[in-house]
Design brief:
2 domains, 275 residues, alpha/beta, Rossmann fold, 10 strands
Length: 275
């Protein structure tokens, strides 16, 4: 259940206030029905996402084109996921660690790819208000845009625009059919000497993590060398967040070769659980 604050026209979920003006009635109905009073474990979020995925008849073993994938990523379950990530201690630590890293190395322009709820952008803005932040979101929500409204330097855009000092992609690549193509686009949008932060989850945690991407679980660092990236390490406090520096141009032949090798050995490494 959710808590209403009629006087301020807010819905409160796990301590986070959501303005009803940014929600459709169908979204309000879903939140009232689906959300528990106490914050659940992350497994509940995953189960609810899978329930919605199944209800839409989606299949992750075939091409997404022609499936209701846009409807899935526009579903209110992602509002719930956004709220959860804003209050879950582990998620908060991961974001704050990334924010600390980005703010420390003096970046001026950052792209948060897939940051639809705006949580990372808001936390980064609070620490480093002079950084210009583009939230690149193919499925923007009215709620996400309202949360950052009035914050100078934060804007929602549909695609990468120009050159950035840093591109951040949290939980993005495992959701797309051509993760390396999207990675290339991100690399091309970063200045030479700039940084990219990838927090990938190439695991079958939820059904919207596409099995075709899992070969990159232990090979991603190697493959992106063909994109002129140098692995710099991991973000302190967010060990799954990998930091790369753009040091060269994309070499397509090298990239194709490395990706071919990764497709051969990646499934074996996954089976061996090599880390």
């Amino acid at each position: 259940m959710v808590t209403h604050q009629a006087s301020t026209q807010q819905i409160v979920i796990w301590g986070v206030s959501l303005p009803t003006v940014a929600l459709q009635q169908a979204e309000i109905n879903y939140l009232e029905k689906a959300v528990t009073l106490e914050r659940p474990p992350v497994e509940w979020i995953w189960q609810e996402m899978d329930r919605v995925w199944n209800a839409l008849g989606l299949e992750n073993g075939r091409a997404l084109q022609g499936q209701s994938i846009g409807e899935f990523y526009s579903h209110p379950v992602w509002v719930v996921n956004g709220v959860f990530s804003a209050v879950d201690p582990v998620s908060v630590q991961h974001r704050d660690s990334i924010v600390e890293f980005v703010s420390r190395i003096g970046m001026k322009r950052v792209a948060d790819y897939g940051g639809g709820f705006g949580e990372l952008a808001l936390r980064l803005h609070a620490v480093a208000p002079k950084i210009q932040i583009d939230i690149v979101e193919p499925y923007p929500s009215k709620l996400g845009m309202l949360r950052v409204a009035g914050k100078a330097g934060i804007q929602f855009i549909n695609e990468l625009d120009g050159q950035y000092d840093c591109v951040i992609a949290q939980d993005v690549l495992e959701h797309v059919e051509q993760p390396l193509l999207l990675t290339e686009q991100m690399v091309q949008a970063v200045k030479m000497g700039g940084h990219l932060i990838f927090a990938n989850c190439f695991y079958p945690v939820i059904k919207c993590h596409l099995p075709s991407t899992f070969y990159l679980r232990h090979t991603f660092n190697c493959v992106v060398r063909g994109m002129g990236l140098k692995f710099e390490g991991r973000v302190d406090g967010a060990n799954h967040a990998l930091v790369f520096k753009r040091v060269g141009k994309i070499e397509e032949n090298k990239l194709i070769l490395l990706n071919s090798i990764a497709k051969l050995i990646g499934p074996l490494l996954n089976t061996m659980k090599c880390f």
